[in-house]
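Saturday, quiet lab. Running sequence design on the structure tokens for the scaffold JK sent over.
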């Protein structure tokens, strides 16, 4: 059995690796990434957010589901902030989705990094 292979991916919610604009203001959120199908391989996912608005805004990340409080990560993103770490590199698989919604549409952008870990 060899060492796992780690391959960087463009998140499924991104175009060419660009940031994903959070359009949704409620569940289900804007799609950031859908994890690899099955339970053998894993996607390592990291999410940073930036707020382009002049007011602090709440961001909710739906991590693999939409059940409160089990699947929700809530963070207030400061106004006109640089990139703020919202989710440190964490693993998902089995086709689970990572989505996000914000208190106001079109002002929060998420930079999503994904590494696929293949057994």
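Result came back. Writing it out in full:
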């Amino acid at each position: 059995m060899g060492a796992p292979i780690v391959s960087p991916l463009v998140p499924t919610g991104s175009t060419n690796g660009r940031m994903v604009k959070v359009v949704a203001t409620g569940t289900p959120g804007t799609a950031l990434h859908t994890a690899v199908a099955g339970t053998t391989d894993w996607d390592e996912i990291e999410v940073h957010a930036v707020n382009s608005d002049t007011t602090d805004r709440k961001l909710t990340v739906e991590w693999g589901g939409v059940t409160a409080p089990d699947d929700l990560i809530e963070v207030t993103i400061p106004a006109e902030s640089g990139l703020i770490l919202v989710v440190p590199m964490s693993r998902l698989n089995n086709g689970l989705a990572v989505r996000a919604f914000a208190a106001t549409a079109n002002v929060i952008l998420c930079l999503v990094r994904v590494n696929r870990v293949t057994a």
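Notes for JK: Residues 20-110 form one domain. DSSP finds no helices and nine strands in the chain. Ask whether to fix the surface positions before the next round.
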